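Continuing the series of single-chain predictions for the mutant panel. This is the parent chain; the variants come on the following pages.
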Amino acid sequence: MGQIGYAASFEQFHPNDLLEYCKLAERNGFEVVTASDHFHPWVPSQGQSAFVWSWLGALGQATNMRFLTGVTPPGWRYHPAILAQAAATLEAMYPGRFALGLGAGEALNEHIVGDYWPEAPTRLERLAEAIEIIQKLFTGKVVKHSGKYFTVESAKLYTLPDAPPPIYVATAGPIQAARTGKTVDGIITVGAADEKLKMLMERFEKGAREAGKDPETMPRMLQIKVSYAATDQEAIDSAVVDWPNGGMNFPKADIRNPEDFEAMAKLVRPENFKNRVFTSADLEAHTANVQHYIDLGFKEIHIHNVNRDQESFIKAFGEKVIPNLKW
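Parent structure:
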């Protein structure tokens, strides 16, 4: 049996509102929460960008759901040793409920510390070194590390869970997919063409087997974006207004400011959302959309409703979508 997750969008909603949405989601059959980790929203009109790590402890108290960061980039805003401490603390407080979702990051959030923003291969190298440090700290041993990107001087985590939290890595390319399978516990990716998703999973499995792991036992998390509303027109209109970045079919990792995205949003049209955000008022169509990814082999699917009406989405999916999925 798989699980459906609720994507808590910190770019769009106040953290108190998100806490209420997660409680409502739990009552309606969602079992996991993915919480985005941004310093800035994509566009100024989205209006929020709270510190997710302050909120995660409150989520653990308010619900019994599993939860993870979706995703946190080590190496700029956060030194990997600090992320290891934060993740170990949450797992110690809520055993078996937290996973550390990591990614290579985006300039939108990471440029604020003023460091040079490198090209993608360097960002992936930094991510790999950060993961190595985090995994060493999870052992509870004293860690000394002098690497290409990071230094750790005699660091030791004293508050540890019985077992370390699993690490998932957000992955969009074949090289990183293989590295993810080899080095961490699970993979995160986003909805894409079937051919690309199959390729990524094949590379993930290959990397896992090379490390002596069984890929069939490893989590494969998929996040999909939808816009559910009372009418099809309202669904697409609200996606254009509330989540214009969803219609931008180009790499976004090097763009620094919400105002730059706002300027580009003026060029976004409803047709740009095709195959990127599933917009529909038809709950049977939404069920078929989620079912398609289940049939591709994903056992954990997190759904981000990109428009503002979260309550209607949560209740409708809880009543008409989640109960009709076949795992």
